[in-house]
Amino acid sequence: MTIAPPFLSLDQITKSYGGKSALNGVSFTVQAGEVVGLLGPNGAGKSTVFQICASLFAPDSGNVAIFGLDYRTVPSLILARVGVVFQSRSLDADISVRHRGQNARSPRAPRRQGPRRFRQ
């Protein structure tokens, strides 16, 4: 019997901003199908954990694996399988829909396919 790797594994993650520690030795594992919530006061590091899991930030030390893949060695494979929706809007009101579409592409599409698909 083959045991599947955890969906998410954080091992001894640390992250600091300037001289202030945001995460200090955070470790946990999430198995496929589990539902997990992070609770804590403002400034506890919840957003930093999510940003590291989404590969937006790199931890200062420790290991992160998603689908059993190390985010440092194969981030593109991980990002192609993970979707992230942020709480606040992140769209620039000065950018047109056409410009967004011309610069958008699927992570699985060849780099030059995005603009051509938008014009079609």
Account of the 3D structure:
With 120 residues, the protein is of the alpha+beta class. The chain starts with 7 loop residues before the first strand and ends with a helix. A hairpin with a 2-residue loop joins strand 1 and strand 2 (20-30). The chain has a 4-stranded antiparallel β-sheet with strand order 2-1-3-4. Helix content is 22%, strand content 24%.
Radius of gyration, whole Å: 17 Å
Largest sheet: 4 strands, antiparallel
Q: Mind telling me the CATH class of the largest domain? A: Alpha Beta
CATH superfamily of the largest domain: P-loop containing nucleotide triphosphate hydrolases
pLDDT below 50 for ≥5 consecutive residues: which ranges? none
Distance between the termini: 48 Å
N to C succession of SSEs: EEHEEHHH
- Beta-strand percentage range: 15-25%
Helix count from the secondary structure assignment: 4
Helix content: 10-25%
Rounded mean pLDDT is 80
| Strand element count | 4
Specify the CATH architecture of the largest domain. Answer: 3-Layer(aba) Sandwich
In the CATH hierarchy, the third-tier topology of the largest domain is known as Rossmann fold
Overall number of domains:
2
Q: Which structural class fits the helix and strand makeup?
A: alpha+beta
What's the layout of helices and strands?
Layout: E1 8-17, E2 20-30, H1 46-53, E3 61-66, E4 69-70, H2 75-79, H3 97-103, H4 113-119
Antiparallel strand pairs: 1-2, 1-3, 3-4
Helix pairs in contact: 3-4
